[in-house]
Amino acid sequence: MKKLWTLFAAVALVGIMAHAALAAGDTLAEVKKKGVLVAGVKDSLPPFGYVDEKTREIVGYDIDFCKYIAKKLGVKLEVKPVTSASRMPQLMEGNIDIIAATMTKNPERAKQIDFSYTYFLTGQKFITKKGAVKSLKDLEGKKIGTAKGSTSEQNVAKAIPTATILSFDDYPQAFLALQQGKVAAVTTDESILAGILGKAPNKNKFEIPNLQISEEPYGLGMRKDDKNFVAFVNKTLLEMEKNGEAKKIFEKWFGPKTATPLKRTFKIAADK
C-alpha cells in the first residue's frame, strides 16, 4: 500500500512539475522541440481567419502573422479553430501555443494571459440596415447582436445600457440574426464588420454608421509569464514592421482593391 501511495505521489509530482514548467514559459523551447507551432485562429471571420473556398485551408491576416513567426522559429504551423469564448481556455489548457484571433488586449485578460505588442488597431462600431441608425439613441431599448466572451459584449452593454444584448457563438451568426430582423444591429470591431459586410451577397442593404464606442488594440495571446516566447514574438513583430512585412500583410487583406478596404492608422511598436 505504501508503495502504491509513493507511486501516486510521484505521478502527482510529475504532473505538478509539468504544469509549472508550462507556466514558467517553456513554450519557445517546446515548440522548437516538437517542430510545430499550434495557433488558435478564427475560421469564419474574413479577412482575419476563414476557410478559403478553393483550397479549403484557413487563411487570413492573423494566419499570415503566425506563418511568419513559425518560419522565424524554423517550425511548421498548425492552426486550430477557436471562438471568442474558447480561445483563452484552449491556450491555458495547453491545446494551442498562441492565440491569433482578433483578440483585444485589456487588463482583465492580462491577469490570465500575456499579450504581444499591438499588431492591429481598430475600434468598435455597428452594422445596421441602411439609414436606420444615425446616433446611439436610435439603438436604445433595441436588441443588439454580438459574440459570447468578447470585449464587444461588455463595451456595448456600457455604451447603451437600455439595449438587450444577444450573444452568439460568433459574429456571422449575429449578422444572420440582423438579416432576419431579430436584432437591430451587430456590434464588434470595425475591421471585423467590414469583413462580414464585404462577403455578404446583400451588402447594399446594410452599412457601418460612423459611431465608434471604443478603441480595440489586438494582441497575440500567450500563456502567463511565458517570458522567452513573448520576447521572441515581440521581437519578430518589430522586425515585421521594420522590414515592411506587416504593412504588406495589411495591404493584402485590407488594401484598396480588397473587399474590406481600410486605412492603416497604426504601426507596430513596443507597447504594454
UniProtKB/TrEMBL annotation:
Gene Ontology MF: a single term: ligand-gated monoatomic ion channel activity
Domain Ionotropic glutamate receptor C-terminal: start-end pairs: 36-256
One Pfam family it belongs to: SBP_bac_3
Gene3D superfamilies (alphabetical): Periplasmic binding protein-like II
Secreted found in the keyword field: no
Keyword Transport annotated: yes
GO CC annotations on file: extracellular region; membrane; outer membrane-bounded periplasmic space
Domain (Solute-binding protein family 3/N-terminal) ranges: 36-257
Keywords annotated in UniProt: Signal, Transport
Cleavable signal peptide: 1-23
Domain of life: Bacteria
Any one GO biological process: amino acid transport
SUPFAM superfamilies xrefs: Periplasmic binding protein-like II (SSF53850)
Family statement: Belongs to the bacterial solute-binding protein 3 family.
Protein name: ABC transporter substrate-binding protein
Species for this entry: Geomonas paludis
